[in-house]
Amino acid sequence: MKLNIACLPGDGIGPEIMNSAVQVLKQIAQTYQHDFTFSTNLFGGHAIDETGNALPDDTLNNCLNADAVLLAAVGGPKWDQGAERPESGLLRLRKSLNLYANIRPVDVYDELVNYSPLKAEQVRNVSFVVVRELTGGIYFSEPRFHNENEATDTLSYTRDEIERIVTYGFELAKSRKGKLTSVDKANVLESSKLWRKIVNQLSVNYPEVEVEHLLVDAAAMELIRNPRRFDVIVTENLFGDILSDEASMITGSLGMLPSASRSGNGPSLYEPIHGSAPDIAGQNKANPIAMLRSVAMMLRNFKLVDEANAIENAIVKSFHNGYLTSDLGGKSTTTQFTEQVVNQLKFQAVGGANR
């Protein structure tokens, strides 16, 4: 397969983990005889430094014309007080690519059960997906303003926006364990009342899927108390942002969770859910697993299932060989862990994965 991949290293640890992603993809291309091309593009804080714009026109055009977009990390305190913030580029990119559904799988590896801050019996065999609406809600609605004495943010959703993301959630639940948990704040918010009504209306089309409604505060508690109860969680933009970050700690580290942002009519975007970690940037300490698992999600989207499985298997075998980064209590550097994954991919090829 031939793929044109737009790479957005971004800020902080971004360039380091993007380098890991490209190394692994090059090995996959060699092993499975694919043709992957990569373009490196300015984005985020570094783009502001170079151009004054977090999302330069050239970067956006390259993303729009790519088969897929890989994003590493964006933001940092250096740009917090500027007229343009790095995160504004990310919001514009999501809108421009029509990235309406953010998919965040939460899986606890057996090998890392004891690294979770929760008890092992709570997290063993945990596997669920957070489906977050990505282009509506409070992050995008108008009006919004602030002055020295007051501030206003607006939360609005249309029926079409809600139906689109909830349908995605139902379809995903149908392909998994058949349970959909819709998270809202319908006891307070008008937008959540509409959200819950639409979930109930759509549920008649999916009789095989069990549906439950949870208020967001109850969902936050249940993620810690009994995360195994979940299969697919579907929710709006703000709630999904917060809950998926909370859920990441079930696995032991923010550095473990990948994500895919699906487009309605163009290339999808793949990125780890963690931030730019400026405190460890340039120190070769970053955990590249979330970035590599995002790469695996990208490959699965192109029906390259064997290739995606090879990456996941290589990560697990690296654990078995004692390779863990410092956020998981290990001593491996970013470079060492990446090299181990690449070596495992080579071993798999020698063992018969090549075709």
Question: How would the blueprint of this fold be written?
Answer:
Blueprint: E1 2-10, H1 14-32, E2 35-40, H2 45-51, H3 57-64, E3 68-73, H4 86-97, E4 99-107, H5 120-123, E5 127-133, E6 145-146, E7 151-152, H6 159-175, E8 179-184, H7 190-203, E9 210-215, H8 216-225, E10 232-235, H9 237-248, E11 260-263, E12 268-270, H10 289-301, H11 305-320, H12 334-353
Parallel strand pairs: 1-2, 1-3, 3-12, 5-10, 8-9, 8-10
Antiparallel strand pairs: 4-5, 4-11, 6-7, 11-12
Helix pairs in contact: 1-12, 6-7, 8-9, 10-11, 11-12
Describe it:
The structure is a single chain. This protein has helices at residues 14-32, 45-51, 57-64, 86-97, 120-123, 159-175, 190-203, 216-225, 237-248, 289-301, 305-320, 334-353, and strands at 2-10, 35-40, 68-73, 99-107, 127-133, 145-146, 151-152, 179-184, 210-215, 232-235, 260-263, 268-270. By secondary structure, the chain is α/β, with parallel strands linked by helices. The protein folds into two domains: 1-99 and 266-355, Isopropylmalate Dehydrogenase (3-Layer(aba) Sandwich), CATH 3.40.718; 117-251, Isopropylmalate Dehydrogenase. A ten-stranded mixed β-sheet has the order 2-1-3-12-11-4-5-10-8-9, with helices on both faces. A two-stranded antiparallel ribbon has the order 6-7. A hairpin with a 4-residue loop joins strand 6 and strand 7. Helix 1 (14-32) packs parallel to helix 12 (334-353) and helix 11 (305-320) packs across helix 12 (334-353). The radius of gyration is 20 Å and the shape is globular.
